From TrEMBL:
Classification via Gene3D superfamilies: Rhodanese-like domain (3.40.250.10)
Keyword entries, A-Z: Repeat, Transferase
Organism: Microbacterium awajiense
Keyword Calcium: no
UniProt domain Rhodanese: residue ranges: 18-136, 168-273
One Pfam family linked to the record: Rhodanese
Biological classification of the source: Bacteria, Bacillati, Actinomycetota, Actinomycetes, Micrococcales
UniProt xrefs under PROSITE patterns: RHODANESE_1, RHODANESE_3
Entry protein name: Sulfurtransferase
Region (Disordered): 265-284
């Protein structure tokens, strides 16, 4: 397994030029443009297969499940086979916005037993800035035969509620949403009592991730140090996976609460804290 969950544009280009058989996945997704297929078709890394975040990395149910509930094992495995993945493949995932959607795919594939899966640091923007070629049109690979592991799909809402009792629970949303001053997507503003705030910007340097030492310092600033049980949540579970990816790049294991604030705030009687402080922990 690679030492880092990230791969640079230069390293990826060298591996592709050497014919190393890297499987490329393009997870083109944004909140304001959830269907990224048209942008993918207009230009993507040569050989990259489009991944539909909304249907292959998530499902849709009632509000109390959150905005991006995880798909079933069967749905996810079928998607991975459509992408052409076989057991033992090396996989590189990328997107066109800060690696947030790519991190979701990385986290799910890693949890399902894919040993060699990395995220292209800087994504499509850095590839383009380097002057490397893009390909247009769709890529339809031969069907793969990968067997994904059944996995625990992160931590539950009840586990998130008590996490501050024994570890550090990170809220990866913007500070104003954590404080409860703004909530553009969910019915209640604020944060899970006991959670600390570490916005995604703290671990980034533009489109790329910050250096490992900078990432470790950012985590340490909220008490997330080596040997501490760390978990993360965000609005809908995507940026939480990004925080887990950053943690892995900095040498920390970070659990993910996939339901995140969209699930918590749509569940009656869940306590809510506001303001800049974590707030008092108490049972939900």
């Amino acid at each position: 397994m690679p030492g880092s969950p990230l791969i640079s544009v230069d390293e990826l280009h060298e591996l592709l030029e050497a014919g190393r058989g890297i499987r490329l996945l393009d997870v083109r997704y944004r909140l304001d443009k959830p269907d990224g297929r048209a942008d993918y078709v207009a230009g993507h890394l040569p050989g990259a297969v489009y991944v539909d975040m909304e249907t292959e990395l998530a499902t849709h149910g009632v509000p109390s499940e959150g905005r991006h509930p995880l798909p079933s094992h069967e749905t996810f495995q079928e998607a991975a086979r459509r992408w052409g993945l076989d057991d033992g493949d090396a996989v590189v995932v990328y997107d066109d916005y800060r690696s947030v959607a790519a991190a979701r795919a990385w986290w799910m594939l890693r949890g399902a037993g894919v040993a060699d899966v990395r995220v292209l640091d800087g994504g499509l923007a850095t590839w383009r800035a380097t002057g490397l070629p893009l390909e247009t049109g769709d890529v339809a690979p031969d069907r793969g035969s990968i067997t994904l592991h059944q996995w625990g799909s992160g931590i539950s809402m009840d586990e998130a509620a008590v996490w501050p009792q024994h570890g550090v629970l990170i809220d990866a949303r913007a500070a104003e949403r954590y404080r409860g001053e703004s909530e553009p997507y969910d019915p209640v503003a604020g944060h899970i009592p006991g959670a600390v705030n570490l916005p995604a910007d703290a671990v980034l340097d533009g489109e790329r991730f910050a250096a490992p030492g900078v990432i470790r310092s950012a985590f340490e600033s909220v008490g997330a140090t080596a040997g501490t049980a760390v978990a993360a949540y965000c609005g809908s579970g995507l940026t939480a996976a990004h925080t887990a990816l950053a943690g892995a790049a900095g040498g920390l294991e970070v659990a993910v609460y996939p339901g995140s604030w969209s699930q918590w705030s749509n569940t009656p009687d869940r306590p809510v804290a506001t303001g800049a402080r974590p707030g008092r922990w108490h049972p939900a």
